[in-house]
């Protein structure tokens, strides 16, 4: 039996979403099979997957997902967003940095180039904000949270333009605008996730700096290998949640120096 014949299509509940790609909202001319056709036996054997969905998608999103083995819609949606962010990174930067009103003073050739970037970046931004839709699958209705929106929201404030939203977030959270743009692209076009990831990385970087500084002093005092001590401290911090660097070093001292 043809494996494709064992999959059932999903149908958009809202007429406005008929014929739209589930992942980005563009015109759907292809189908994405969830779980992927070539992995279906594996998922059914090891995870007991009991669904086989045929999902409307556009040519580009289908291309993004060709080699992806994620077995559910949510994970595949996140992957598509990151692929769009990566592919249209330059256009999204232009869109977040320029406004059509800023182009009057530019030369014709540069104006044409920037204008094209703004247009492409706006399209990519709209695709990033599209977040699936409510659908019916084998007689069962699945309702999305309807997160599709026409504006960006930061701390309760709503913005029509990506640039304004990023600038507001940059000022509010005291994050360099260029760093925030990088995180926005890395997280698949989600400002809230970009901010959270930035602070998580900053916290990790600060912890790494403190570990290195305190381990240098510890190793000099007790004639220990800095590489070993740093690695052990990180292991202890992960293993013993809530304990300090000092506690970890004291444990190493008791176990390795005087033990």
Structural class: alpha+beta
Read across the widest sheet, the strand sequence of neighbours is 2-3-1-4-5
The radius of gyration over CA amounts to 25 Å
Low-confidence stretches: none
Main β-sheet description: 5 strands, mixed
Strand content: 5-15%
The general outline is flat
What string gives the helices and strands in order? EEHEHHHHEEEEHHHHH
Question: What is the residue-averaged pLDDT?
Answer: 88
Give the helix tally. Answer: 10
What would you note in describing this structure?
The chain is α+β, with helices and mostly antiparallel strands and 259 residues long. Among the domains are: 1-87 and 133-148, no CATH class; 199-257. The protein has ten helices and seven strands. The chain has a five-stranded mixed β-sheet. A hairpin with a 2-residue loop joins strand 6 and strand 7 (157-159).
């Amino acid at each position: 039996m043809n494996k494709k014949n064992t999959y059932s299509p999903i149908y958009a509940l809202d007429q406005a979403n008929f014929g739209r790609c589930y992942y980005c909202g563009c015109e759907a001319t292809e189908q994405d099979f969830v779980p992927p056709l070539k992995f279906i036996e594996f998922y059914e054997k090891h995870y007991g997957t009991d669904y086989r969905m045929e999902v409307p998608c556009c040519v580009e999103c289908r291309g993004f997902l060709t080699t992806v083995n994620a077995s559910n819609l949510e994970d595949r949606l996140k992957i598509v967003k990151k692929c769009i962010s990566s592919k249209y990174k330059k256009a999204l930067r232009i869109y977040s940095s320029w406004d059509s009103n800023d182009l009057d003073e530019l030369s014709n050739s540069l104006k044409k180039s920037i204008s094209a970037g703004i247009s492409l970046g706006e399209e990519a931004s709209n695709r990033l904000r599209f977040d699936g839709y409510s659908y019916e699958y084998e007689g069962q209705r699945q309702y999305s949270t309807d997160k599709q929106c026409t504006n960006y929201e930061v701390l309760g404030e709503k913005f029509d333009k990506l640039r304004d939203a990023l600038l507001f977030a940059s000022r509010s959270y005291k994050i360099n605008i260029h760093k925030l743009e990088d995180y926005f692209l890395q997280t698949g076009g989600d400002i809230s996730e970009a901010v959270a990831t930035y602070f998580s990385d900053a916290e990790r970087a600060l912890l790494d700096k403190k570990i290195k500084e305190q381990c240098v002093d510890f190793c000099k005092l007790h004639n220990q290998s800095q590489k070993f001590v740093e690695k052990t401290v990180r292991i202890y911090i992960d293993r013993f949640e809530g304990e300090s660097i000092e506690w970890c070093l004291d444990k190493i001292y008791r176990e390795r120096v005087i033990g």
